Amino acid sequence: MPVTPFHFGLGAALKAAAPRHVSFLSFAAVNVFIDVESVYNLMHARFPVHAFFHTYLGAPLMAGFTVLLFLLARWCARRFYLPNFYHWQQLTLLQVSIGALLGALSHVVFDSIMHADIRPLYPYSDENVLYEIIPLMYLHLLCVFFGVLGLIGVYVRKADED
């Protein structure tokens, strides 16, 4: 994706579909963490830009890192005051883990469709069979569609609660 937030649309749709099982915060966080690799590589003129954490081996490791950060933040929140934005302190380990894993794996899928330098099956293969499997405009529209669907779903669920 040209901009990391494009990935968030699917996270919003998954959160709307399964609000008790998926953490949108961990979904979004892992997407940002994965793209830190690309920013670093761009800043240092390293190729490929989309490297290890953009693989099916590296992305789950980044999901694990995200979960560990959540556990550390929750541990700190028990000892010190930390703001509870979006009720993150009430999230379960399972919600965070599912959100992070879905976010990490979907990141690789979406970026594999868009970027020629990704080798999603590395170190087992240098092939990227998803590259341009659909036109980029459709990929972008799909991400926006997921985002709109997610926002509608969250709004409907919120209205049902009130």
Question: What does it look like?
Answer:
It is a single chain. This protein has 162 residues and is mainly α. The protein has helices at residues 8-17, 24-43, 58-79, 93-114, 136-161. The protein is globular and about 45 Å long.
**Low-pLDDT runs:** none
Give Rg in angstroms: 17 Å
Count of individual helical segments: 5
SS strand fraction: under 5%
Total strands: 0
Order of helices and strands: HHHHH
Largest sheet: none
Mean pLDDT, as a whole number? Answer: 94
Gross morphology is globular
Helicity, in percent? Answer: 55-70%
Distance between the termini: 36 Å
Look at the helices and sheets and give the structural class. Answer: mainly alpha
Which helices and strands, and how do they pair?
Layout: H1 8-17, H2 24-43, H3 58-79, H4 93-114, H5 136-161
How do you describe this structure in short?
By secondary structure, this protein is mostly helical.
